[in-house]
Every structure is written in C-alpha cells, then in structure tokens.
Amino acid sequence: MPAPAWDRVTPAEVERALAEYDRLGPKAFFAEHGFAPTTTYELVWQERTYPPKAVLGTAYEFATGQRLAPTDFEGGRSGAVKVLGVLGFTVRPISKGNQHV
Question: Where is the ScoMcrA-like N-terminal head domain (predicted)?
C-alpha cells in the first residue's frame, strides 16, 4: 500500500475521531477501527488523553473512506505524532504508569 495521503486529513476529522473515541469508549473504539492501545505517546485534547495512532488512523478513514491497518503507517515521532503535530494537536510521551487501556 502506498503511503497514506495525510494532507487529506484535517483537524475536523481528527476531532470527529476523538468524539468517536469518547462515544464508544476505548475497548469498542479499538474493536471498531482495528487499532490497539498506545504505550508510547498520548494525544492531549480538552484535558483528556487519547491514543494518537488509533485516532489518526480513524481520522484518515473519515477523510478518505479508506481504512488503514496499524501496520500501514508508523505511530511514533516520524508518523502519527508528526502528522498530528502539524495539524495543531499536542502529542506527548506517556509517563510510566500512565498507559492507556
């Protein structure tokens, strides 16, 4: 699969994915969208934390209609963290003991 077209994702799709995560809860969100919990980074939005790779992958699906598998793109600094930063979102390393379920 070619590299995802991240330029098609806007902050609005990311916010829609965040709302979907809030609506479904972590377990159902991961089951619905095919991602797993994060262990390295967390997206911080409105004083809550989210799994950046799962949120970005879901935002991409909302923007393009194409579902990405977790193996289709990187989640770290050169992947989801970078893309979300460019879109204006805050992503930080997870401190020990504060990992997402």
Answer: 8-92
